Amino acid sequence: MKPKLETxxxxxxxxxxxxxxxxxxxxxxxSALARAVPGYVPRPGQAEMAETVWQALSSEAIAVIEAGxxxxxxxxxxxPAIYWAAGGERRVVIATHTINLQEQLVNxxxxxxxxxxxxxxxxxxVKGRSNYLCRRRLAALADDIGRLHPADRGIFLxxxxxxxxxxxxxxxxxxxxxxxxxxxxxxxxxxxxxGQYCPMQQNCFLRKLRQDVSECQxxxxxxxxxxxxxxxxxxxxxxxxxxxxxxALIVDEAHHFEExxxxxxxxxISYSEWLKLWREVYRRDGKQINGLLVHxxxxxxxxxDSPGQAARLASIDEVFDWCSRxxxxxxxxxxxLAGMIVSAGQRQESGERYLRITGNLDDNPNWNAMLSMLQNxxxxxxxxxxxxxxxxxxxxxxxxxxxxxxxxTLPLALxxxxxxxxxxxxxxxxxxxxxxxxxxxxxxxxxxxxxxVKVVERPLSVSHLISEKITGQVETAVFTSAxxxxxxxxxxxxxxxxxxxxxxxxxxxxxxxxPFDYQSQLLFGVPVDLPDNRxxxxxxKAVAFLYQLLKITRGRAFLLFxxxxxxxxxxxxxKESLAEMGLTPFRQGECDRxxxxxxxxxxxxxxxxxxxxxxxxxxVPGEALSCVVLMKLxxxxxxxxxxxxxxxxxxxxxxxxFAMLSLPQAVLRFKQGFxxxxxxxxxHGAVIVLDNRLVLKPYGRFFFExxxxxxxxxxxxxxxxxxxxxxxxxxGRA
Length: 734
Ligand code: SF4
Description:
This protein is 49% helix and 13% strand. It is an alpha/beta fold.
């Protein structure tokens, strides 16, 4: 629903009343929120957080708030955000990392907060461009439908028929599920958009979306879209952004922001993208040849015996030759890179291989030969791009002369892809040849999958970029997450996103503890007699311990790994015995994540072996999850190229990369894993860490200091198991 914007007069009166509003009244037992949100439980931390958000918004400050699990963060920022937005003609953008949270905000929390406040503030969810349908690409594919697989042809026609019912062409709103490959040819991604030159611009879904968004005062987006918008506005002096102007920003799930910004401000080009670009120009599909250049030639041949037609056809044929040469030279170069990375790249435990691009490679003859090949690719590709651009321009001029405006689409699309090929080759050359100061550059590949080879560049620091392009562009901002502090300090995180560059008097820092009673709800255990997890006997000892642990907890456990190798080894050893114990083993990747979680929940005795993505963002409240085992402290892999380059930079500036990067990163990740267990006020269970460095190493105290006040047991395996038996038999749930 999109309520109307308030009038200036009513907004002014709202502003006055907002100033007089005691936000705390929304968060009590008999509050309007309690009436609007079924099952609402008042929490003092939520009211405290709302006050800090209001303070930031109303004093043009920047707030950084860590709010422990269960605080009810979203309502704590939505209520002040609604008041703030309703207080004048101003707009707030809320950016989250996950689509789940975006949907929760627009479908549940925002309607409830508006009901509770009695305000009418229009809001909308806006996704990245590639989630929406492009009418021009759809029409182009309709002309070329013969090349689609018969199954896709049916889907395409169904899609076409349901278009009339779509408001914005959002993939999620389409009644027909569209396979990824087909959607990739239809979405409104910016690279394929012809913008003001598009003949379908008047009916463009994105245009309609933009118009409607401009009437909203609260806009919910993801981190990526926020960053994309900032970059586009930066390049076009505010002209072409996706989002209308906004004055306040709230970033939720902010612990991801640095990582997303690093990807966003970086660049890369892969072999598969290279091939995809050329396939748009010219490709063979079985006996058929297709692509923009082919269509242009066909159109030219159909144009009758116009003067100069033979010459134009001859120049198109010449471009075909150049395209083949460029494609071939580039492919040969990527395959050489693949060979090089197999022989010289660093193999990660996950199987991927990396080769850092540093000055050290300059003396390597293979490297220099590969650079010469790249130079040759650049020469051929540049010539081809120039020819493609030239024939596109000429075709456009001919069309305009002949008054065929609607035909402009084809030459425009061709010149657009030519520009993208030019940008791709430029990325490859610049990343390979440097300079590399302030950046990490590398080649990476999944073994045996040559098409995954890519060259990548990432900034070592995004703090200045975020400060300049994000926080520097708004009047006020709020960053929040359940995990921003390491050892009770926000300093590390603030420095990573450039908040240390803002005058300290403008920054409000707040740590809101979780409302949960961890002392009674959670037991934290570390069996200190297990061997170091790099030792040969670790696996056998850990497995023996886990059998006893899982018997006590009756499964209902997540085993969280930092390594797929260890995960696989342990799963293979334990799965049959677990089944014999009457427990149900699950393994990450055996099916879709949400299906897997549902199966785990309904089993009531599941043991899930999982890594990476299950350390965070997974919510299994209730008894189905009663134990979380963290197999190892989650330190970054030292050979990860970005981590390695960042560590080198800290060292070269005289710093200690372990203390300044590795440790705080690991603590934040550890807190995320820890946070999987207690999701509700009535949850109980145990978190067990099978990494005795936590107790034996001096740095272990940083992890302990980062945890909420809870019951702890550090001792031999049998002591830990004994306490666990008591916990699950007594205070904990049986
Ligand atoms: S303006 Fe861009 S997104 Fe919209 S229909 Fe045209 S090409 Fe597609």
